[in-house]
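Re: the multi-chain job from yesterday

Posting the exact lines I submitted so nobody has to dig through the queue logs.
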Amino acid sequence: MRATTVEEILDYHGRFAKDRDDLDFEIDGVVIKLDDMDGRADLGETSHHPRWALAYKFEPRKEITRIEKIAVSVGRTGKLTPVALLRPVEVGGVTVSRASLHNREEVSRKDIREGDLVRIQRAGDVIPQVVERVPEAGRRRKAAFRMPERCPECDTQVQEVGPFTRCPNRFGCAAQLKRGLTHFGSRGGLDIEGLGDETAALLVDRGLVKELADLFEITAGDLEPLDGFAQKSAANLAQAIEDKKTVGLARFLYGLGIPEVGSTVAATLASEFRSFEGIQEATTERLETVDGIGPIMSEQIRAFLDDERNRERISAVLGRMEELVAPEQESGKGLAGMKFVFTGGLEGFSRADAKRLIEEHGGRVVSSVSGETTYVVVGGDPGSKLQRANDLGIEVLNEGDFVAVLQNAGAL
DNA sequence: GTTCTGACTGGCGCATATAC
DNA sequence: GTATATGCGCCAGTCAGAAC
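And the result, structure tokens for all chains:
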């Protein structure tokens, strides 16, 4: 249909939202296009979506299902997360069987218990989310959920920290070691090809890795007898580990899993101190002079680095590695000072490649759109970040524009 | 006090590598 | 050749710290 006012567009959208269940096919919104050719030329295009056309999505589909159990998973930092195990239900063409409940206060706030009927949705049409409990008259409910008093993985007494529950057994908890190992070898960390969740768990379970440093002692011969490994895969992983004995300082810092140090803070620290020794010797006051680090973060970083067990562990890792490479100076680089946010899938780049190119040329990739963001790069099927970019007046780039920016910066 | 930002966590689909 | 396991890509919610 052709509309001449915003009200007409909203009315059309509303009618389709109401009738979508009667259609023979699955839709998640309507596309609005400008039919003024001059206007189209002014607005330009993205690689998938012209700026003169936008997908106006419906409210996420909601379905009702029952919580069969609330399980508790232990994360890399020892955080215990309640997870709703759901009776599988199809939501927007996808079967959903699990949804994070985040923390005990969230469970309490929503008053969710095992056996409850709940309304779920896929936030942003992606992430399964328990929206609310659906009351059932006359049904006797199970007891309120309580976080376990002991870690379900290592049986250590847990601690309550704000809304979170943590297992303090950082070094003895197999779950934390497995996830720490995965993090160490992840893309943002040492980027060890072939070291994913399952492999890391296998290495810990089989006793090949009792602490991070053990990773560098593993040979193809150790791996071959393991389930899922054969000669080629064992050789590949052993070689991948060997190749990462020389890595960038920022990757190493990120991989260590220092509290409050994610990829951004790791890169900042690496750029500022340019050696691990420099960071290790920095006082809290010195750390606080670094952009983005305040007193609480500096205390946490200092506490991690001062912990005797951590020092031993890091020393053991460094003893088995060859070199930590300091980042190049970024001043004068083409993307220095620019912040990029991605939404939607790119055709010509993976996110990782795009991030690497940006960072190699002095720019940064951040996770959320704010007034500080320089560009929001939009690919196919963008998420809510595009809307936020528009709201804040942030410049939006399609993939072609992004390539041009990279070319201008000498990154391509 | 408010806004901005990043850390952390987890789910699902798909592509790919690998084992059998 | 087929089946399966694994990793990757993408994204959102929650929270807390930093900055203003």
